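Before the break, one more example. Copy the sequence into your notebook; we will annotate it together after we see the structure.
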Amino acid sequence: MSDTPAPNWKSTFPIRQSDEHDVSRRQFCKVACCSALAVGGGWLAKDKLFPQPKATEPNLIARVEELPVGGYKLFAYPTEHHPAILVRLSESEFVAYSQSCTHLMCPVHYRHEKREFYCPCHEGFFSAEDGRVLAGPPPRSLPRFPVEMRGGEIWVTPA
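Here is what the structure looks like once it is written out:
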C-alpha cells in the first residue's frame, strides 16, 4: 500500500466506480411510478390520439342471389383497411362481422357445417350467430355490423 494521499477530486466524488450502476430503492420507485403513469395516461388517451374509424354511409355488399346458404363474401368495412365477412346463415338470415380475430388480429374463416368462425393462428372459435367467443384465447366477441336488406340487395349500415 502506498502512503500517498487520495487526489482531491475523490473527496468531491466519493462514489466508487463499481457502485455507479447500483440503483437505490427510491430511484427504482420513481422510474416505476413514472413509467406506470406514462403508460396509463397513454392508454386513456389512445382514443383521442388514434380514433377508431367510423362508417358514416351504408355500403352495398352483395346481391342476395350471389350468396348461397352457407356462403360468405369478404369485403372491407368501415374502411378499405379493415377486413370484414358477410355470411348467409339461412334463406333469410345474413350476418356481417369484422374478419380480424380479437386476440391478435389474424383473419378468421367461416365453417358452415359448425356455424362458427375459426382463427387458425391460436385456435380461436366464434359463434356465427352472435360472434361470441366459443373457445380459445380471444378476449371478446367479434365486432358485428348491422345488415339491412333493401330489395334484393344486402347493405351494411353504420351503427
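The chain has two domains: 8-49, 59-156. DSSP finds two helices and eleven strands in the chain. Try to locate both features in your own notes.
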